């Protein structure tokens, strides 16, 4: 019995004798649901990439997206295995171990754990005394409703990038860096 809005992993055993295939060591197969299964059961089978040389049995995930439970026959044909010509690689062999019992997650893979970056620079900090005169009004407008920590951070950013802002109405920026002739 598959519960409502749940998923379960089912063990699928390959019948190698019935398939009568010559299987090479590097052969990979993709298991997808059959048309008969889709017509018989309101379930979804997650496509699964397997290498049957590693194990004769593998896990596939069956999902019930509806609010009612579904009972499956024991000998139900869930899916078929098709040979894949080439496989660039597998991201992960299994789903995230910490999510194993969480049935609401589908195919969540954890590639690596998050690490803290020790090369992150310290946040700029300044106070109102360090502020250039032309930016004091901007600082007062920017820190309304902010905490003291946010206030010092904003002041630090304004001090670092003070030369980006115009000092007066005649400060037009870096116009001396490029000269060009205008044909009139």
TrEMBL record:
<protein>
    <submittedName>
        <fullName>Uncharacterized protein</fullName>
    </submittedName>
</protein>
């Amino acid at each position: 019995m598959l519960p409502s809005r749940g998923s379960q992993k089912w063990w699928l055993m390959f019948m190698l004798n019935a398939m009568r295939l010559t299987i090479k060591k590097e052969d990979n197969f993709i298991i997808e649901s059959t048309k008969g299964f889709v017509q018989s059961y309101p379930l979804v089978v997650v496509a699964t990439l397997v290498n049957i040389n590693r194990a004769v049995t593998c896990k596939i995930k069956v999902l019930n997206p509806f609010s009612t439970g579904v009972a499956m026959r024991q000998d139900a044909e869930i899916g078929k295995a098709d040979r894949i010509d080439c496989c660039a690689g597998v991201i992960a062999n299994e789903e995230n171990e910490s999510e194993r019992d969480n049935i609401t997650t589908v195919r969540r893979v954890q590639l690596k754990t998050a690490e803290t970056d020790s090369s992150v620079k310290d946040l700029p900090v300044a106070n109102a005394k360090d502020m250039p005169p032309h930016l004091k009004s901007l600082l007062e407008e920017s820190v309304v409703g902010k905490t003291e920590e946010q206030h010092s951070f904003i002041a630090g950013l304004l001090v670092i990038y003070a030369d980006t802002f115009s000092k007066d109405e005649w400060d037009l920026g870096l116009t001396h860096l490029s000269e060009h002739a205008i044909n009139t």
